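[SOLVED] Predicted holo structure with zinc ion

Edit: marking solved, answer below. Original request kept for reference. I posted the sequence and ligand SMILES and asked for the 3D complex as structure tokens.
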Amino acid sequence: MSVRFFHIAGKKQETARNALSHSCRALASSIQHNTWALPTSLLITGASQLLTLRGRGPRRGAALANLGIIRNGALLVRDGWITAVGTRPEIEALPEAAAAEKLDLGGRVVLPGFVDSHTHLIHAASRAEEYELKIAGASYEEIARKGGGILNSVKKLRAATSEALKQRARRALTQFAGYGTTTIEAKSGYGLDVMSELKILRLHKELAAEQPLDIVSTFLGAHVVPAEYRGSSAGVNSYMALLTQKLIPEVAEEKLAEFNDVFCDRGAFTREQAQQILEAGRGEGLVPRLHAEQLTHTGATQLAVKLGAASCDHLEKINASDIAALAKSQTVATLLPGCDFHLGLQKYAPARKLIDAGCIVALATDYNPGTSPTMSMPMILSLACSQLRMTPAEAITSATINGAYALRREKGLGSLGVGKLADLAVFEVADYREIPYYFGMNTCWLTMKRGVVVHAADKAKT
Ligand SMILES: [Zn+2]
């Protein structure tokens, strides 16, 4: 069979006819094939707009709007990697194209698979029970004081089995793929004790090995201080010691994470504590990143710049001198408008100021049960356009190449060029601007990871 299909919810990758799900079978049968062996080369044609995002990443300022569009575009893929990109006549003229398996996308829009650089993938359950309180006007912090919030998720996670957590995460990964996402970052942070934090990070590793999406693991033991350490400064200090002297060294030793994150805000960790935790991680080879300036202004952005953090995320309360410092740095400003939308807050991060100042802006879902229960990057693009006043082109760049840069993966991910992974999202639209324009709808028609189809919409059956 020509095009491989991967069942995310199932076992390891299967490659023959039997592996094709019912929803994908007709799609596959419409594709020419003449061998049961794995295809070495795949010719993809029929992209009315092929958004290559070619050029050097990351993008700042005016370059954010440059999508590198090829009309009537085509790609040649070998063993999961892109070997040629151009117009259909150019690519079809290549000697390798003649023998390649064929996939015609029928005039749809193609872009790099989304790189979602901020998620809290592993959690035990939704927090729908808090939703009405939020709607009635209770603040995030008031809900936390009533026993809700992050500590509510911690309680649920500690009680959950690894298998139950994994099942839930697998379903989420299927949905991520369904919206065109091919790489996600995943944070721990709902365990907050040694056993539970390691359990989450080990699940990242297991899930990365058994399903096709890339999962980039981040340690977030410094999400909040867990209940059993609260109420005294001695308690907080002993949790700090647990993080810096036990958990971080263990995470690094077992290679369970690449990044170390801290929620630096009122009710979580101070700037000084964040610095201590991030420096401890850096000493063990974990790259810093930060939840910064979400609920209050803490100076976390300046700390992120000072420490050379990969990203600082949220930034609703960022000020002018923070923006100036970020613009001069390589630290990515990751915006998470799903949070403000879900919490009903009017104060979105100042994306235009960040872009105009020359910051590297990324967009992510912040998929989590408390503040942003969505896996839909297209919905995030809609929010970025309507609420952050980003253009569709700026939003797409922020969700692809700049997201990849935030995860230090820009060499292989986030754009479509020779030597990049064949990670594609194909949308059932006539123009890329329609992706955010149709808000709350999923127009993703097909998702490909490393040259393998991981999502095919029902429409593909016909
Ligand atoms: Zn977060």
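OP edit: The pocket of zinc ion is lined by residues 118, 120, 291, 366, 368 (CB under 6 Å). Thanks to everyone who chimed in.
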